[in-house]
Design goal:
The structure is a single chain. This protein has 330 residues and is an alpha/beta fold. It folds into 3 domains: 93 residues, Helix Hairpins (Orthogonal Bundle); 119 residues, NAD(P)-binding Rossmann-like Domain (Rossmann fold); 75 residues, Regulator of K+ conductance, C-terminal domain (Alpha-Beta Plaits). 54% of the residues lie in helices and 15% in strands. The relative contact order is 0.06.
Amino acid sequence: MWKPILLILLMIFIGVVGFHIIEGWPFLDCLYMTIITIFTVGFKEVKNLSPQGRIFTIFIILGGVGTAIFTLTKLGEILYEGGINRFLRRRKMEKKLKSLKNHYIICGHGRMGKTVRERLEEEKLPFVVVDNNEKKLLELKQTYRCLYIEGDAAQEEVLNKAGIKKAKGLAALLSSDADNLYLVLTVKLINPSLFVLSKAMDEEAERKILQVGANKVVSPYKLSGLKIAQGLIRPTLVDFMDLIIRRKELSLYMEEFTVKRDSDIVNRNLSECDIRRTTNVIVVAMKKPGEDIVFNPSPDIKVETGDTLLVLGDKEAIDHFEKSYLGGIS
């Protein structure tokens, strides 16, 4: 920012000193003559110029006018990027935040929060990031690649701004278990039906976070330890599950669907639906409300409202399954 300003001040200094030495004018006259020359105002000279003064003025015009244009251009860019452009982008972001629905809220943009954000970006799902640490949001501020809110995620005002009443799910990934506990409690008071997933570093905290209303709690250390153990015992299985989760190197997808009241699959057993033949999708598991998940469910099991189906197939097959049995793509 300072380079353009220092450059124009240098040109003014050279002009004032030059006119003073060549013409012998007072300081004010030299400054006035330099300013109207550099900025091409076109006012009449203070006094008649000598031949040497005219030659010097030509050089001031050639160097000073270009410098003035360069300086004003740079200052305009700085003003636009630092103020006007930021204001316009912020206004645009606020409009998008107000129109959000069926989105996800990521509370905390640390290492876990960043990983969750990147995955949601890959899935092209709507989301907003909330964090009160300016450094953690620096990348998002510079690129404006996604919606974000700088503020305390546990504050009701901030959560309402993030559209908590219209959200589909919330991830509580703050730095401490106490913060996540308070966040989950606040969220459930505002929107009791919202699906909330929280992280917990301590087993006692995990139990308390579940008690205040979290739908699911993940312990990063426990999860990592289990994965390492499985990697030692069943490395091929772990590789396969990683492929399913990442979806980058494999054309297969695994999706979960909640059966609604108006779904064509309601009150029919799996053998009646003949899902595998009609859509080329495999029902890997089923979970009924309040019961444990059942893997490789029996063909005779009846599908009812509120059941969750875990299906495996390519994207086209899964889309066909959703359209055919669940009433279209949401």
